[in-house]
Amino acid sequence: MQIAVTFRHMESSAAVRNYVEEKLARVKKYIEEPIDAQVVLSVQKKIYHRAEVTMVAKGLTMKSTEEKDDMYAAVDLMVDKIERQLKRYKEKLKRHKGGNSGTQRRVEKTVIAASSVDEGDSGPEIIRSHSFFVKPMSVEEAVMQMDLLQKDFLVFTDDRSETMNVVYRRKDGNYGLIVPQGR
User: What is the CA angle 87-39-2, rounded to 5?
Assistant: First the structure.
């Protein structure tokens, strides 16, 4: 497991770094693949200690953020949350052992400035563009991945039909699924 710890608005501490590494070592038992973890520890307004982690392993990305008045307590809560997410993920995988027979697709995400669209300029101004691969998965797996990423929607390739779909969180707390229809 590779762990990168960043300190913001606080002194770098070997004791805290070792504590984070020791606590995150607990999650190795849930995923056998190599795990990359980015941890950001920060202090805001000299009171709130914030621990944030983004973990990537086996095509799965998980995020957790916790705030407490003590850094060690924030780290404990953050690791507990990641551990719960991984347990839930592993249990769902056991229940739904689907095959990933499809191929990955490359998707490009582009962020466009709202002002360039509103003012009627000659063309929209692109702020950022990012491309990534979309792995085939079931609808249940896509919902779980969306929850783990703490996102409102997720674009994915359906592992059965191999079509590009979108799952999203509705305002009433339920989930919606957009499936494109043929011509």
Answer: 75
pTM higher than the cut 0.85: no
Identify the burial level of 16 via C-beta atoms within 10 angstroms of its C-beta, where 0-12 means exposed, 13-18 middle and 19 or more buried: buried
Which structural domain, as residue segments, surrounds residue 66? 2-95
Eight-class DSSP state of 141: H
- Tell me the pairing of strands 153-158 and 164-169: antiparallel
Verify that 149 and 80 share a domain, yes or no: no
Please check whether residues 46 and 117 belong to one and the same domain.
no
DSSP tag of 69: S
Reduced 3-state DSSP string for 13-41: CHHHHHHHHHHHHHHHHCCCCCEEEEEEE
**In whole angstroms, what is the distance from residue 74 CA to residue 67 CA?**
5
Q: What is the DSSP letter of 121?
A: -
Q: pLDDT, tens digit, for every residue of 2-29?
A: 888 999 888 888 999 999 999 988 887 7
The residue behind tokens 């002194």 is 11
Same structural domain, 89 and 109? no
d(CA 137, CA 158): 5
> Among the three residues 64, 95, 126, which one is the final residue of a domain in this structure?
95
Calculate the alpha carbon distances from 80 to 91, 141, 151 in Å: 16, 22, 20
